[in-house]
Amino acid sequence: MNTKKNKGMLPPREFAKRVLKYAFYSLMLLLISIGIGIFGYHYFGDLEYIDSFYNASMILTGMGPVNEMKTEGAKFFASFYALFSGVIFLSTVAIFFAPIAHRLMHLLRIEELDD
């Protein structure tokens, strides 16, 4: 945790900085993931870079594949990338909303239980 237990809520300016920092982390995770997809579809699926970007974007957002994969290697990559993308998309949403959820818990005065 970034704040001490008895310390109050962050001021709005500090909270905005934290939200931007976590948004940056989310964006980096998405960019790395889309890069993996672009490389994989280009290398295994023998697609042009723009088509690889299109396929990776569609899979990463849960919309589904665009181009048919013709080789076994391409089909394996597409399958594993789809599984990976599902986890990454949910992780990105969780990372992005973590500081907002944390702030909401403070507003509702929800505290951690001491063990």
Automatic annotation (TrEMBL):
SUPFAM superfamilies: Voltage-gated potassium channels
Top-rank lineage group of the source organism: Bacteria
Protein name: Two pore domain potassium channel family protein
Residues passing through the membrane, by range: 22-44, 76-100
Keywords assigned: Membrane, Transmembrane, Transmembrane helix
Organism lineage: Bacteria, Pseudomonadati, Bacteroidota, Flavobacteriia, Flavobacteriales
